[in-house]
Design goal:
By secondary structure, this protein is mainly α. The protein has a domain of about 55 residues. It is about 80% helix and about 0% strand. α2 packs across α5 and α3 packs across α5. The two termini are about 20 Å apart. The model has no long low-confidence stretch (mean pLDDT about 90).
């Protein structure tokens, strides 16, 4: 995972592949977004951002309340689903 986090484009590709896999096994968009929020929580707590994009996302995550974090997670899923 650490190698994936070095490049934001690589991170988006990794997340896109996971979202695609989740859809293939029948997960709903809501379930995927909830899982994305859990991953976001883990990354915000445990991983130091390695690039500017990750730093901005962490700063947004840190100031967001729970509902806003869910929205950020849904936005990230939408971002990588369109690629």
């Amino acid at each position: 995972m650490a190698t994936v986090l070095k490049s934001f484009e690589r991170w988006k590709q990794f997340l896109s592949e996971r979202v695609e896999q989740a859809h293939k096994v029948g997960m709903s968009d809501e379930t995927i977004s909830k899982l994305a929020a859990q991953v976001g929580e883990y990354l915000a707590d445990k991983i130091d951002p390695e690039n500017n994009e990750e730093r901005v996302l962490k700063e947004l995550w840190d100031v967001a309340d729970e509902q806003e974090r869910q929205t950020l997670a849904r936005c990230m899923v939408k971002l990588v689903s369109k690629e």
